[in-house]
Design goal:
Number of domains of chain B: 1
Number of strands of chain B: 8
Distance between the termini of chain B: 30 Å
Strand content of chain A: 15-25%
Structural class of chain A: alpha+beta
Oligomer: heterodimer
Largest sheet of chain A: 6 strands, mixed, barrel
CATH superfamily of chain B: P-loop containing nucleotide triphosphate hydrolases
Shape of chain B: globular
Order of helices and strands of chain B: EHEEHEHHHEHEEE
Strand content of chain B: 15-25%
Helix content of chain B: 25-40%
Strand order of the largest sheet of chain A: 2-3-8-5-7-6
Largest interface: A-B, 25 and 32 residues
Number of domains of chain A: 2
CATH class of chain B: Alpha Beta
């Protein structure tokens, strides 16, 4: 009877497309909006993700997220280095400084100061130049998005396209000259400010004079050392906060979840998408069954049992659900691919596929159940009504 | 108010019995009970010696699938299935493989004169052709009883006559009974017996019993 169920479903192309489009829309909304949300939230800890080498981040106890800098004294670095299980510990400066551009305007930048000797904590991908070029006088490395947009030089012709910064160009950081010696690709940050890398000692000269300037101590654990255990030891011995990379990401993520309206806004979008998609698909599928009630009645009169009819309806629901889901996630993936080089945040992990798959299945099961009820209660004698 | 009351009627194998009467007199209710798709509140209805009221629902479904063929006023063909697929439905319900069922369906379509239109959808066929497909569907699994509800009322006189001729020639058989509910006085002459109904009663049976009662 399966081929009869499929023919009944696809016989009326208009209705069939209506159900599939309803489910496609539901699936699209259920994946596209959360993918943007996840992309956005991933950017909150993109700086941590980009620094692959350190296992543990040490900071002031009051730090709530990665951009919440509460400087430490430089001596804290030596205390951390003295703890057993630490392979190495390096200083990292991170701060928001104003860069003066060629046209005299100012742009706030994320300045990162790396350990002078090792340059640990540098950008993940160099587009132009080498990280060692930071050792050149006044050298800075700028992120590839920043040079094209916020740090770009104004066009010589009014209304023309800005000219990207290039290696050799200079800018001013806190009245001190900085020369671009390299261009790096970094993961876009939540605030989307340009990222400028330099050495730790040079970063301290760019930063306003303060008693304490060390933002983080980056720690590499010895081989076979338990990271959580080492972080616990660092906390105990120094009184500072110490997190593994994943813990620090989670802390940052949680801060944005708790303190911004982003999850609620996106949650509403997703919930509305689910409700609208469920309503469209459920209603269309239910109407489809109602309109086919007479056909089900004929099959019932001829001796088809309720279980067979139930199987037929479930098959129809599974088919439209699978096609709608496939099209929806396909469109989301296409959207993400099309937006990959834009400012739009987008992250599409497998968990989202499972989530939307469960959502679409729920819609289909719900629609099928209310339809099945009608068919099971159907009196086959309706076939004799004109 | 009871839809049927005090009915006492035998239908014979090899007989074409017509149930006639005004609208609302209980004709359709009676064939629904006979076909096992409606349960009566009281009384007994034996079909081939089986009391359908006391039959388990699974057995009743099997009984209907094997023994009853249906022809409806509005044909009730599945619009997205072609003629062959529509005719093969009773065989598939009875567990026959699809390919075999469709082969048999094509053969019965030849018998009703629609061999050339076996791939046509109902929407591509005239009313008369659709009713012939419905007759083929009612016959394909060789049921012992065929119930027809107003089989000619949606057709013009000539087509109705053709459909009745076909029913009498192809469907009627010594091992099979036909019960036809109709208003259409033009086809009364096809009946072996006519039961006139009114107000839920059989008021008169015209014709005579000539066969063994079942």
């Amino acid at each position: 009877m399966n081929h009869i169920a499929l023919k009944m479903l696809t016989g009326d192309k208009g209705k069939y497309l209506g159900i599939v489009l309803g489910l496609t829309f539901a699936s699209l909304i259920m994946t596209q909006q959360p993918a943007i949300f996840l992309g956005l939230m991933t950017r909150t800890f993109s700086f941590i993700s980009d620094l692959g080498l350190p296992d543990i981040w040490v900071m002031d106890q009051k730090v709530q997220f990665v951009d919440d800098i509460k400087p430490l004294q430089d001596t804290e670095l030596y205390r951390v280095r003295g703890i057993s299980g630490v392979e190495w510990a390096m200083p990292l400066y991170k701060g928001l400084l104003k860069a003066r551009l060629a046209d005299g305007t100012f742009q706030t930048c994320n300045v990162v100061g790396l350990d002078d000797a090792t340059l640990i904590g540098g950008p993940p991908i160099m587009v132009e130049g080498k990280i060692e070029d930071l050792r050149r006088s006044d050298g800075v490395i700028v992120d590839s998005e920043g040079i094209k947009n916020k740090l770009a030089k104004p066009s010589p012709t009014p209304g023309g396209k800005p000219i990207p910064l290039k290696v050799g160009d200079s800018l001013e950081l806190n009245d001190r000259r900085a020369i671009v010696v390299g261009i790096a690709k970094v993961t876009r940050t939540f605030q989307s400010q340009p990222v400028i890398y330099t050495t730790y000692s040079r970063a301290k000269t760019y930063a306003p004079r303060e008693r304490k300037l060390l933002s983080f101590v980056l720690v590499k654990a010895k081989q076979n050392e338990n990271h959580r255990e080492l972080a616990r030891r660092i906390r105990e011995r120094t009184g500072l906060a110490a997190y593994t990379r994943d813990e620090f990401k989670a802390l940052t993520y949680q801060y944005f979840i708790n303190n911004t309206g982003i999850p609620i806004n996106f949650g509403i979008s997703v919930a509305l998408g689910f409700i609208v998609g469920a309503a469209i698909a459920g209603q269309t599928f239910y109407n489809f069954t109602l309109e086919n009630l007479r056909q089900f009645g004929v099959l019932k009169a001829m001796g088809t049992g309720n279980w067979t009819l139930l199987r037929m309806i479930l098959l129809q629901a599974v088919l439209v659900g699978s096609i709608g889901y496939g099209l929806g996630v396909g469109l989301t993936a296409l959207f993400g691919f099309a937006m990959r080089n834009t400012i739009l945040a987008f992250k599409f992990p497998w968990q989202l596929l499972v989530f939307s798959g469960a959502g679409v299945s729920l819609i289909c099961v719900f629609a099928a159940l209310i339809s099945i009820r009608k068919v099971i209660l159907l009196e086959p004698a309706i076939v004799f009504k004109g | 108010m009871a839809a049927l009351n005090g009915i006492n009627l035998d239908i014979l194998m090899g007989e074409l019995m017509m149930l006639v009467g005004p609208s609302g007199c209980g004709k359709t209710t009676l064939i629904s009970v006979i076909a096992g798709i409606l349960d009566q509140d009281q009384g007994r209805c034996l079909v081939f010696g089986e009391d359908l009221l006391n039959m388990a629902s699974r057995n009743k479904l099997d009984f209907r699938a094997r023994n009853i063929g249906f022809v409806f006023q509005t044909y009730n063909l599945l619009p997205s299935l072609n003629a062959t697929e529509n005719v093969s439905i009773p065989l598939i319900i009875n567990g026959m493989k699809r390919a075999e069922a469709e082969r048999k369906a094509r053969s019965i379509l030849e018998q009703v004169g629609l061999g050339a239109r076996n791939a046509a959808l109902p929407s591509e066929l005239s009313g008369g052709q659709q009713q012939r497909i419905a007759i083929a569907r009612a016959l394909v699994h060789s049921p012992r009883l065929i119930v027809c509800d107003e089989p000619t009322s949606a057709l013009d006189h000539e087509t109705g006559h053709t459909v009745m001729t076909l029913l009498k020639e192809v469907a009627l058989h010594k091992d099979r009974a036909l019960v036809i509910v109709t208003h259409d006085a033009r086809i009364f002459n096809f009946a072996d017996r006519i039961a006139e109904m009114d107000d839920g009663h059989v008021v008169k049976v015209r014709g005579s019993l000539q066969h063994t009662t079942h």
